[in-house]
Design brief:
- The chain is of the alpha/beta class.
- The protein is built from twelve helices and eleven strands.
- It has helices at residues 28-43, 78-88, 100-106, 108-117, 162-168, 182-194, 216-219, 221-227, 261-264, 279-286, 308-320, 332-336, and strands at residues 50-54, 69-72, 93-99, 122-127, 173-178, 199-204, 228-230, 238-239, 245-249, 256-260, 295-302.
- α6 links the parallel β5 (173-178) and β6 (199-204).
- α1 (28-43) packs across α6, α2 runs parallel beside α4 (108-117) and α3 (100-106) crosses α4.
- The radius of gyration is 22 Å and the shape is globular.
- It starts with 27 loop residues before the first helix and ends in an 8-residue tail after the last helix.
- The model has no long low-confidence stretch (mean pLDDT 93).
Length: 344
């Protein structure tokens, strides 16, 4: 009798493919790739049951660098491909990789639908506020005044907030991270994988060639403590040097304000507690921008809801008596002639 030997634990290198990584030296994508390799190893994800799907752009090269299954698809349509993959085989771990231009411009409509449907996938949006692959045109997230080949006198467009867009589409899981904060990024990715439903993670990613230091106003070491807040469920919203600053509701109850505990005489008991199950608080956190308020990082929102593939599976079972992904056999000709038909 054959005895099955369990596979040895995989390392981060086991998830790296043999392909040359062709991103610019210093690109934030390198750091994100490293974090994903490490996260997959820590979670022990099966390489033959893991799929990475991408659209078009610098971030879209990601599937080539993963020793898993992968699909490099077309501009903006990665969510549609990911939906088909997950419905065809719900047992797969599906990761969707996209940039701010790919997701929020031509792909905005598809992002809307994958979020509202709550497909059980991990959606990683690399936000560098520029089109890097096509040589530096402004993107939907570029700030007003951004000078680029397509806006030589500065962009006039108000930028899209990826986090607020996701919330408006009905996202049940929303998180943020920074490319170079490896430990924090990996923890966020693990929480995204643990969530059942669409896990939307915005990663602030630096494009060193076409939009260098776009996030330096809150990522540089000199200002990071005062301009970042790492939120944790059930813990007070504290930040700053020695965590002596905190957030609380304004007196009108319509927004958040930052308070210096030492200068105001307040204590931790006066500071708001983070509740990742509160959509209103998630919206307020997502709206915060320096210098008045810090950028919120970590899991801003997590809500439980049925996944799209589970609902489709239940409907198919009810209609056919068999579960997905078993094929449904029927007479197509008879199906076409069922219901409201007429002869000409």
């Amino acid at each position: 009798m054959n005895v099955a030997t369990p596979p040895e634990g995989l390392t981060a290198k086991d998830y790296a493919s043999d392909q040359e990584v062709r991103w610019c030296p210093g690109c934030g994508d390198h750091a994100i790739l490293k974090a994903v390799h490490k996260t997959c190893a820590d979670l022990g994800l099966s390489r033959d049951r893991t799929v990475f799907v991408s659209g078009i752009g610098c971030a879209a090269r990601f599937p080539y660098y993963m020793s898993t299954y992968g699909f490099h698809t077309i501009h903006g349509r990665a969510p549609a491909i990911a939906t088909g993959i997950k419905l065809a085989n719900p047992a797969l771990d599906v990761w969707l990789i996209s940039g701010d231009g790919d997701s929020l411009s031509i792909g905005g409509n598809h992002v809307l639908h994958v979020l509202r449907r709550n497909l059980d996938i991990n959606f990683l949006l690399f936000n560098n506020e520029i089109y890097g692959l096509t040589k530096g045109q402004y993107s939907p997230t570029s700030q007003v005044g951004t000078r680029s080949p397509s806006t030589p006198r500065g962009s006039l467009d108000q930028p899209v907030s990826a986090a607020l867009f996701a919330l408006g589409c009905g996202a049940r899981f929303l998180a943020r991270a920074i490319d170079t904060q490896q430990k924090h990024l990996q923890e966020v990715l693990k929480q995204a994988q643990a969530h059942r439903g669409t896990s939307f993670v915005e990663i602030f990613q630096n494009c060193i060639v076409y939009n260098d230091a776009a996030f330096s106003h809150f990522t540089e070491r000199e200002v990071a403590q005062d301009r970042q807040i790492h939120v944790e469920h059930g813990k007070p919203l504290l930040f700053g040097t020695d965590r002596r600053k905190g957030l609380r509701l304004r007196s009108d109850g319509l927004g958040l304000e930052a308070m210096d505990l030492d200068a105001s005489g307040l204590s931790e008991a006066d500071i708001l507690i983070h509740d990742r199950h509160n959509p209103v608080l998630a919206n307020l956190l997502a709206r915060m921008t320096p210098p008045d308020l810090p950028v919120a990082l970590g899991v801003l929102l997590e809500l439980e809801a049925p996944t799209y593939e589970a609902l489709v599976d239940a409907e198919m079972e009810s209609a056919t008596g068999s579960k997905l992904p078993m094929p449904v056999r029927c007479d197509v000709d008879a199906l076409l002639r069922t219901g409201h038909t007429w002869s000409v």
